[in-house]
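Per reviewer request, we include the raw input and output of the structure prediction for the construct analysed in the revised manuscript.
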Amino acid sequence: VNPLKSKRVMAELNPFAAEKGSTDKAAVQKRKAERVTASKEHNKKHKKGDETFYKTLMKAFAAKAVESEKKEEEEEKEEE
C-alpha cells in the first residue's frame, strides 16, 4: 500500500506525519482566508465603475462604430 495515498500507512511509517499535516493545514487555511479577504477588498476598490478594463474596451469599440456609421452615411449622401 502506498503511504503517500494512505494516511493510516503513513502514520505507521512516520508517526509525526499526522501532526505535521494538521498544523500545516490550519496555517494554510488561515493564509487563504487572509488572501481571499484582501482580494475582495481590492476588487471592491478597483473593479467598479466606468474605468474597468472591459468597459473602457467597449467604449473604444463603440466610438469606432459611430465613426464608421458616419462615414457610411456620408458615402450614401455622396452617391445620391
